[in-house]
Amino acid sequence: MTPEQILLVRSSFAKVGALGDRAPVLFYERLFELDPSLKPLFRSDPAQQRAKLMAALRTVVGALDRLERVLPMLRDLGRRHARYGIEPEHYATVGAALIWTLEQGLGPDFTAATRRAWMDAYSLLAWTMITAAEAEVREQLAA
Questions:
Q1: DSSP type of residue 135
Q2: 18-34 pLDDT tens trace
């Protein structure tokens, strides 16, 4: 990602964070609207799940200019998500729900450049998590 994209993601995330719990509520509502089969995979308390989502996003957004610091966390998260039943194709649905949520929360501040920056950031995050999950599956099959 370019420094300009990182700045767009960070500044827009700060605006979304100002919405409080509204953003993660919108995200999960949209996620389950797009794919109702995902709802049973989220068994923990919804408030805790929303807090975890925002904490993970805060961590990643804060480290976009030094991703090596969060890559181990993302790989671990990908492996755990695979154990919970998250499939690689689910990441596209999550990405769509995230982009939609940002669009709703930011309104006219969600420019084409901001959208592209978030899509690039999410693609990197999702790719890291998917490849870690797939590596774990390969290791389990080889054992």
A1: H
A2: 888 899 999 999 999 99
Average pLDDT over residues 35-47: 90
The CA radius of gyration of the chain, in Å to the nearest whole number, is 15
pTM of structure: 0.90
For residue 119, pLDDT beyond 80: yes
DSSP character string of 6-70: HHHHHHHHHHHHTTTTHHHHHHHHHHHHH-GGGGGG--S-HHHHHHHHHHHHHHHHHTTT-GGGT
What's the confidence (pLDDT) of residue 19? Answer: 86
**Angle CA(55)–CA(122)–CA(141) in degrees, nearest 5?**
90
Locate 4 and state its tokens: 């300009």
Q: Which range of residues forms the domain containing residue 91?
A: 3-142
- Provide the number of structural domains found in the chain: 1
Q: Which residue bears the tokens 């964070």?
A: 17
| CATH code, 38 | 1.10.490.10
